[in-house]
Amino acid sequence: MMERQTSVTGQLVDSLPDPERAENVVYNPSTEELRAFSDALETTTEFGAPSYVSEDRSRKSEQTKNTVDDEFDGEDEALVENVTEATADIDLVCVDRQLGRHPEHTYVCRYYVPEEHARIALSLSKLLESAPEGAEPDFHTVQLPDWEETGIRVLPERGYTVVAGSDYTGEAKKSFLRLFMLEAKRAGGLGLHAGSKRVTLQGEDGLEDVGQLFLGLSGTGKSTLTAHDLWLEDPEDATMLQDDVCALLSDGTVAGSEGEGLFVKTHGLDSETEPAMYDAVTDETAVLENVDVAEDGTVDFDSDRYTTNGRAVIERDQLSSAGEEIDLDGVDQIFFITRNPAMPPVAKLKPEEAAVAFMLGESVQTSAGDPSAAGESIRVVGTNPFIIGPEGEEGNRFRDLIAELHVDCYILNTGRAGTTDVGVDDTITLLREISRGTLAWETDDATDLTVPTEVPGMDMAKFDLADALPAGEREALRSERASYLEQFDTLDDEIADALY
């Protein structure tokens, strides 16, 4: 994979201000100092945490380009050059953070942002661990929210990202995670927009670990399921390792990325259904963004006053389900989270079928991606909007890895199966029994997928798709999926032929 050469890939990173010497840069301020920089923008919650309202409340995916997949014209080059040059004349804060802990997949990230937007650096500093003192950065990001033009430009070969005209914290976070995933692919693995989890269960020979990954678009339940304890009782346990991005490596280990915190959705957060997450979000160490907080500090997680994409950065130490490690020793099961009503509550997939599910990436649009289209059907390869390079190659690599590693893959529907809602209780029951390996499977006539024959504590008959999905609609859906897969020239034919 080669980056398209442009005149801006040369010395730009080298021309950024030296944070240790430049007079206009405050280098590695503490989180208390970063909060003080943003004092004028803060509303303090009833729990003592800072809360901020940004102008931009989701990622600017349509205005993001990288030099591998996109042609950079003169305007793109000028944007990168002008933003870079502007850093010499703006009062900035600069933080160095560490991404990952794996011996072969750990990176130092250097982030610049104007002092008046230091709240973004505050959130980033709570997501990523401190970089070793004196370590040279692998990746650089400059974010200038007040730039008159909006554009995110990524130069992968230089590890450099410019975020212009957006003050959304997610742009800073993803600027580094995008490159983390690319490096995993270059090393023979695959970067995944996924949560990772270790489930410890009582087996015949004592306690045994099951490694799990959850792939899903933001807002589809990925964080909730990754953090859920599956209602297990001691000595059995479920431990969240990573919430958002990790790297599946060729030896079956999974490298984590964010070692300090999590960037979680808050809309509809409830203390009864998600007590652990609620406790973490309402701790004084959290940082809230675009959440409805009254002048007296009262927090309303059900309000869409600003957006339904309200967010919080929470510290791992405050989430009871989070483990001390962020890397998974080995993956046994991968779950694709969807909300497609044409799918059963769960289906087990062969390797080629799993690659099809990876390529289709079927779900519904959420406010994290495009608030104006929330609720509409959507397909995103790998449920990962941050892929750099040919998407068909990602599907091939995924198929090869799971086949070589003998990983079991499943589609998990957390929305509606036909006309019947799949409840949280149903999903957790399915996950727990799949983790134990207790289910028997058969082919479903309505979908030709492999589904459980019966599940303890569940009435699977109510999810029968035969009536909800007539034969004509099933064939039309299959034809539509086939047409969608045809656009990926590099996708192996064996994968396309496994279409369900």
- Care to count the β-strands? 30
- The CATH architecture of the domain at 13-41 and 58-188 is 3-Layer(aba) Sandwich
CATH level-1 class of the domain at 13-41 and 58-188: Alpha Beta
- Globally, the shape reads globular
Number of helices: 11
First-residue to last-residue Cα separation: 31 Å
Helix proportion of residues, in percent? 10-25%
How much β-strand is present in the residues?
25-35%
Give start-end ranges of low-pLDDT stretches: 1-6
Radius of gyration: 23 Å
**Strand count, sense and closure of the main sheet?**
8 strands, mixed
| Topology-level CATH name of the domain at 13-41 and 58-188 | Phosphoenolpyruvate Carboxykinase, domain 1
Class by helix and strand content? alpha+beta
Name of the CATH superfamily of the domain at 13-41 and 58-188: Phosphoenolpyruvate Carboxykinase, domain 1
- Assembly type of the shown chains? single chain
Q: Average pLDDT, to the nearest integer?
A: 94
Keyword list:
11 helices; 30 strands; 500 residues; globular; six-stranded mixed beta sheet; Phosphoenolpyruvate Carboxykinase, domain 1; disordered N terminus; alpha+beta; eight-stranded mixed beta sheet
